[in-house]
Design a protein that fits this description.
The protein is mainly α. The protein has two domains: 1-61; 63-128. Helix content is 78%, strand content 0%. It has eight helices and no strands. The chain has helices at 2-11, 13-21, 23-28, 30-59, 63-73, 78-91, 103-111, 117-128. Helix 4 (30-59) crosses helix 5 and helix 7 (103-111) packs antiparallel against helix 8 (117-128). The longest helix has 30 residues, at 30-59. The protein is elongated and about 65 Å long. Keywords: Membrane, Transmembrane, Transmembrane helix. The chain crosses the membrane at residues 30-49.
């Protein structure tokens, strides 16, 4: 796979070097380049901050730390974690990680008539149907 990439890249080195030598093109698109770099750096900062927060919470030697460690292991999004915490708080306030062990917790929310029922069904599939 790497060989193919380098062969493709090698075929376009003249185009790339010509584009960078043409400073007019970069000067015309400075706003686009700046905006792209700014958005990329903001996204990277937020991504690293979220991972840092999850790692910090997971490293805590508490039941909540176990919950966040399991969330990180299952690669759950922030929205997934919020829904799971809501379900865990209702049934096992002192042991939120039980939501990963007892599928009945999520099934109780799936049976409710609400707009969140479908999301809880997707979460149950993600956690228990692998």
């Amino acid at each position: 796979m790497n060989v193919d990439f380098y062969l493709i890249l090698a075929g376009h080195t003249n185009d790339v070097s010509r584009a960078f030598r043409n400073r007019g093109m970069l000067q015309e698109n400075w706003l686009l380049v700046t905006a792209t770099l700014l958005i990329g750096s903001i996204w990277l900062t937020l991504y690293l901050w979220e991972n840092f927060q999850l790692r910090r919470k997971a490293n805590a030697d508490t039941p909540q730390g176990l919950f966040y460690d399991l969330c990180k292991t299952h690669r759950l999004s922030r929205t997934d974690i919020t829904y799971l915490l809501k379900a865990a708080q209702a049934h096992y306030r002192d042991q939120p990680a039980m939501v990963f062990v007892d599928p009945g917790i999520l099934n109780a929310y799936i049976k409710e008539v609400s707009s969140d029922a479908k999301y809880y069904e997707l979460l149950a599939d993600k956690l228990f149907k692998h």
